[in-house]
Specification:
Shape: rod-shaped
Structural class: mainly alpha
Order of helices and strands: HHHEEHHHHHHHHHHH
Radius of gyration: 38 Å
Helix content: over 70%
Strand order of the largest sheet: 1-2
Number of helices: 14
Number of strands: 2
Length: 300
Amino acid sequence: MLQLVLAISVSVVTTAVYGPIGLRWRRRARIRREVLRLVAALHLEPYHAALLRNEATEAAAAELVLDGYLQIDGEGAACLTEEGRDPGRTPSHPLPAALLEAVHRHDPEPVSIGWIDWYDVEYVERRSAYGSERDALLPDLPQMPDGEGSRLLACCSCVGIVLVMFFWCLAGVLLLAERPHGVREWACAAVAALGLAALAFAERAGRAVRARTEYGDPLGDLIRAEPHPAFAALDEQQRFHVLRSIGDHSKWRGADQIADEDDEDDEDDEWLDDKVWWEDAYEYRAADEDEPEATPPRSG
């Protein structure tokens, strides 16, 4: 009789424990399939993918270099070519067109692409507007449940784990306390033992569900799949020049750079003047201390 009660109770508890695990597996697998389907049907524009990688400006600069609008020297200074100064020629994509207009605003002074990327307000606004427009076309990917619900649910889960552990220990002791007699009792004991073994692996089963239904970052993998075609078409020297220009955030040989150098020269001159003054003052004071005091003349 005891083995029958144990078999029924262990089966009920095992079903209560593995039922939510199975439902979680089904839900996570459905979300995983939906996310992979949406990402597989997504076709990102190359400039949008570059923008999501924070590489849109260098991709636009690469296209301008390839099309002959822009020339970047070994110092990273970008300047317009004759084709770039032609008002009748404009890139078809809005990002290279915005970058070309930004370089036009500094012409004929050379300028680094990194300075435009950081400080040219009009270019930054147009790039942000393009990104917002393209981001609106992205599908809303369903979120995988992270398992962190309300505090009440977490407390109930902890209490449930404690009760299951207590039941497992009690059922194990009762199962070994009395020897089964007859085929029916042995069968019930075997069912109870299998149920207890399944309960022992419940936590591992939950981790396996999470691991097998995890889909990673498919959208990020799609974004990082390949570089922009224009940047990939550059040779090694051109790629080095573009990267050096995008990494420099100062205006090369422009009015701002010259003004900064003049200010630094003025500060250096003032520092040198102060230094000379302090050195002269120190020498004068030392000379005064070393000079012997004049003896007063004797009175006849």
